[in-house]
UniProtKB/TrEMBL annotation:
Classification via SUPFAM superfamilies: P-loop containing nucleoside triphosphate hydrolases
Any GO BP annotation: DNA replication
Protein name: SF4 helicase domain-containing protein
GO molecular function, a single term: single-stranded DNA binding
Residue ranges of every copy of the SF4 helicase domain listed in the record: 1-104
InterPro entries: DNA_helicase_DnaB-like_C, P-loop_NTPase, Twinkle-like
Residues that span the membrane, as ranges: none
Length: 107
């Protein structure tokens, strides 16, 4: 199925996003999951062009619970981006994500 979806995206010049949650999310504490924490992950990792993990801190002792980490873990076409992390702050009032450095200036 993943091969057919990838072929469709290439034929129609579009992006296809799969959203997958890690196995055993209810037991998750600490660091962000990686691409191998997805059920059937080997197929996803081999077929995808870009792999991105979005992780929200759930432990108040580890830092602010409104902090979100965007982890780029796979980039097949290096022109499209680079592997790395970005930290965002979720503003519960406005429903917006802002760069963590901008959020600290406003707080």
């Amino acid at each position: 199925m993943l091969t057919m979806v990838k072929r469709f995206a290439q034929h129609h010049c579009c992006h296809v996003w799969f959203v997958a949650h890690p196995r055993q999310l209810h037991n998750w504490i600490g660091n962000p999951p990686n691409l191998y924490d997805i059920s059937g992950s080997a197929h996803f990792i081999n077929k995808c062009d870009n792999g991105i993990v979005i992780h929200r801190n759930r432990d108040p002792e580890a830092g602010p619970i409104d902090q979100v980490q965007v982890c780029v873990r796979k980039v097949r076409n290096k022109v499209a981006g680079t592997i790395g992390d970005a930290f965002l702050y979720y503003n519960r009032v406005t429903g917006q994500f802002v760069d963590l450095s901008e959020a600290s200036e406003k707080l």
